[in-house]
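Let's practice the habit of predicting before peeking. Look at the sequence and jot down your guess about where helices and strands might fall. Then scroll down.
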Amino acid sequence: MSDQAQEKHQLAGIDSRERGFSRPVVFEQADGGHQAILRYETTRVITTAHITPGAALEELICTLQGQGYSQLRSQLSVRQGAYLGSQEPWIEYPDPPRQPETPDRLISKFFRWFSRSTS
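Done guessing? Here is the structure:
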């Protein structure tokens, strides 16, 4: 666990409910590699072990984008245990191409919204 604070990133973007967020991503040693861990509200996303923290972060980004997160960007905030503040630049991750809204998807989205507001 001593390696946990060796590298941290700040991750920001829009969640699947279209709300802005900003949370730290921590890395832990596992199976000879690094896992990225994001805790956000009731969500906890843990990647598989990768050789580098950067590769684990890439998997985390892809996983979140697959869950509907968008406009994701990260900033290295701790390197080798040293706090960097906002010295490092933000890295932006382009959103994957979205499928065009079909009438069926629009109707189901409407019913989900309606059922959420009546409960």
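How did you do? Strands lie at 7-14, 20-30, 33-40, 43-46, 70-79, 82-83, 91-92.
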